[in-house]
């Protein structure tokens, strides 16, 4: 239904209805549910709503159309509003939706008085829906802005995807010619066992393949790429603001206020209404905090699983695993983390606002903002807690020979490989991103398709219109014309069979993409191919989302808005967090700083007397290892001065008393200095970029000024 100011009348689609309520057939008229159902329908009729009732076997359908007077009031109040101040050329179902979908109706649906409610799809509109303007005219500005943002995000992923491929190719060239690889693969070094009892010493050259993977991503190129992605996140958001401003100006919603529109609709529905007060729900905040604690506990469970699995595989190495038990533990840990993500995502979907999160806030816009922030926080911890452990805790609190940190006094915490811990982070990110994007897309599309197919098989009737109504579709219809009852029912049943949508259906689409944006910017130093995977996924995601919304799901209630809401604030927060995280990954997690210190302070080129063809990194791996001055007896370490020790471990410690060496403190100071310098430089670049890029083009500002002047002249006349 659209309102045309040129023709000055409300144009209904005469062969259909605006909104449909569905209820189970109740034969006993004395039942309380039947009385409540009848009472609610009578309430709509008293407000001059047109209600048509059609019974189909076990269901009752109520077709609803709103009176013209309601839209006249709505249009007038928008015109005189302080915030909206808008003379609409058209508007959507949202007013009708808020008028009939009151809190009373939501309670009735909970009580099973009504089964569901939905807008009707218009088949004639499907052809134009694969353009932004088509989505705006059919689903409203809110859905259109989602596709506009997703398309812009996908387009700007092209530069980081290309640079990520270049960094990856540089990594391949780097590790093939790196002396670190030759040093590991040709080493005769014996390393300390991975467990105290039942484990044997292992040779460093057994991990040659692991070293190749590490050097593939832990190199100088990833430092540049991390800085680029931190600045790219800012440029993306600033250019998005300009891109959005162009479209919302064209759609005449630059000054739109969702909260004031809701206030207007409350007044239209009841002239004696009282404004709802602003409130804050401490219950929901507490619930989300408890869920975050549960996630942290589950992450601890993953850590315990990895420690036990590493101990088991180290003691009982299978021939099929050979010397790759550590990599096997990482892969198993990644799959377990994804399994936990899947379970907690299901829990998140069960935390509906109307059920588990009873939050009474002044308006739906405020409710949606609060819900979005809390649910994103919940999902963010679900996805990234384990990654933060792998990046910043793994291998740093495990202790030393003779004084290892153990769980329950039995299982030693995991250690880092002599070439670093970045491979563990890379493996986990690869598993989660690939599984999340492939499995999520498959289930996101096939799930609704199978549900529609199943519902269609259960109701195989009324598939075609009668000849009389078929001719009506192809001819000019007059106001008041209607389809016959059978054809109305056919139309309503076809919409009823589609998958249900609610007020937070678009929230789930945004959540999926913002989590992906987090993967693309956070920890990108460990996985330069993340932007490429995100780009490939989004090219498919845009089309799947469009097909799903048009053909597999009920029609979303069209809503007006002029931005993507609190998601923009979340994206900006992620951009700032990306600077901090990538700085810490390079400075703390990777071996970039220790290599620099060795090159210029301890390596063969440190004194400036090395031959021209000398590689400055020769001897680096041996420099990172310390000798254990202990003799292992029955799994325990005892100090020995007479027996020359042969086992080594990764750390910078003295072989006499296990105290940290001077080099350890130099590296630690260099790490902190790099993190501070990196973050300050990148943050300054981000602020400069944000300052030099205006949020709206000059053409948009001039257009808005001209529109305001034109409207004032019209009011003066």
UniProtKB/TrEMBL annotation:
At the top level, the lineage of the source is: Eukaryota
Domain (Anoctamin transmembrane) ranges: 136-702
Q: Name one GO molecular function term.
A: chloride channel activity
**Listed transmembrane segments:** 143-172, 222-240, 286-309, 329-347, 371-394, 513-540, 564-588, 664-693
> Which is a Pfam family this sequence falls into?
Anoctamin
Q: How does it sit in the membrane?
A: Multi-pass membrane protein
Q: Name its cellular compartments.
A: Membrane
Q: Which InterPro entries match?
A: Anoctamin (IPR007632), Anoctamin_TM (IPR049452)
Question: Secretion signal: which residues?
Answer: none
Q: Which UniProt keywords apply?
A: Membrane, Transmembrane, Transmembrane helix
Gene Ontology terms: cellular component:
plasma membrane
The family classification in the record reads: Belongs to the anoctamin family.
Q: What is this protein called?
A: Anoctamin
Give the source species: Pundamilia nyererei
Gene name, per UniProt, is ANO9
